[in-house]
Amino acid sequence: MDDHEPGYITVADICAGAGSIRAALETVGGPWPMAVLTALRPGPCRYGELKQVVEGINDRMLSQTLHRFLRDGLVTTAPVTPGASRRQYLLTDLGGEVVAALGVFIEEVVRLAPQVAAARARFAESALASNTNADSA
Hints:
Elements: H1 11-15, H2 21-28, H3 31-40, H4 47-53, H5 59-71, E1 75-79, E2 87-91, H6 93-136
Antiparallel strand pairs: 1-2
């Protein structure tokens, strides 16, 4: 993305290599990763606390998500108290930057949601009209 103006994204930026948007979305894309990162934004959480805060997430998905975050440097672990064996998860500086960027993205998606809903309704109406016209022909 360095070869062109800021904010301009190419197909190569999306698809190519470890630094691509595609690679990033493999880590943070989807509702569960976004929810877990958002749950960690206020501060450290133990596994069980994350499970309660992120309603509906199962153990396998939470474990996989946390593993990816640890691997990619978005999250680290620390003892709950010094010398304790119980661990808590917390955002790294990189994870904090990702959460901030996701926040901007989510705000924009929420802002545009009514327009998307209206487009879906128009599409459904035109599909229904097309089916009705095809049935009467």
